Amino acid sequence: IKPHPLSSTTTNKTCPCSMKLAPPAASSSSFSYQKFLQFALDQTKLSSSTFVPSHLQDDFSILKAVDGTTELKMRSFQAPKIRLLRSLSIEQSDGMQVLDLAVFPEAEFDLPIFCANFFTSANTNIVVLDLNPLHDVMNETHYKQKYYRSLIPLGLKYAELLPWGGKLTSESLKFFSPIVVWSRFSSSQEKHDILFSAFTEYYKAWLSLMNRATKETDVSQIRLNREAQHRYLTWRANKDPGYNLLKRLIGETLAKEVVENFLFNGVKELGNKTFLDYFPEYACGDGSINEKRSIAGKSFENRPWDTRGVFIGDTFS
Ligand code: BLA
Description:
Elements: H1 34-47, E1 52-53, E2 62-64, E3 71-79, E4 82-91, E5 97-105, E6 113-120, E7 125-132, H2 141-148, H3 152-161, E8 168-169, E9 181-185, H4 189-212, H5 219-239, H6 243-250, H7 252-263, H8 275-278, E10 298-299
Residues 98, 100, 115, 117, 119, 126, 128, 168-169, 172, 175, 236, 241-242, 245-246, 298 line the site of biliverdine IX alpha.
């Protein structure tokens, strides 16, 4: 792959007295999320008998933002157990970088959904990295044990290196697992290296769950998996925190198109239930959906999972 133009650094230059220059001050513009994406694609290819571009690739590949310079790049693939692996990356000349990578399994598998959402601006990074549970991990211990028990040490390692990012939309927590990395930090080479290492470890962990997963044959269980994925897609297609920025970049019509048909593809196909069927607390008196991102408000100042992966936040409705 072509190196990102901003990723070439000046570490090899020498000054006239032939002393090595100090490495460049770490800044958000000195790195790119491209190597994260490339890692995921390479590893998935290695793990899958077939790994081919999705039909979505024809319609969603590259978009120019209304500012005329920012580019939005989209990639999408499928594999035998993967309904859709898709990524959106955005790089702006002022240093803003975004990576939104998700991997959605076929409905025959109750695998978690791989989720990496990284937003970097000149002065801050907002990151969510998780194997989002398909089913309830607060009350259903069976599902939690099946997928997360062996991953708790991995979660603990990165909970320390990438500390909890503070209060967040309370509703989001239900879509997160006990090993979620939710963090905010200012840019530094060290932090970006840690994030890359977390990303590679979480991705490999997800792939090994995928490799071991066996196809469900019970139709009622498949139906439950499909509905759970549809509920997840419905939530994100309506309330994703990135949506507003996307609207600013490419306008409301295109943003809606990207969100419904690309980023959260399946929201129209995998089920018939509406947003309000799943999340009735968002209903307004006139039957419309409350535009607020959250009804419950923000909470969870601290990590609401203990070291054994037990949820210790306040219970919510
Ligand atoms: C902020 N992004 C956030 C926050 C979370 C997430 C938890 C903190 C604010 C909040 O509480 O909502 C991410 N939330 C998630 C994810 C899920 C969820 C992954 O519920 C999954 C279920 N972020 C992106 C992309 C962009 C982006 C693609 O992933 C931009 C195109 C931007 N995220 C972004 C920005 C903020 C943010 C600008 C800060 C603004 C805000 O707090 O609303």
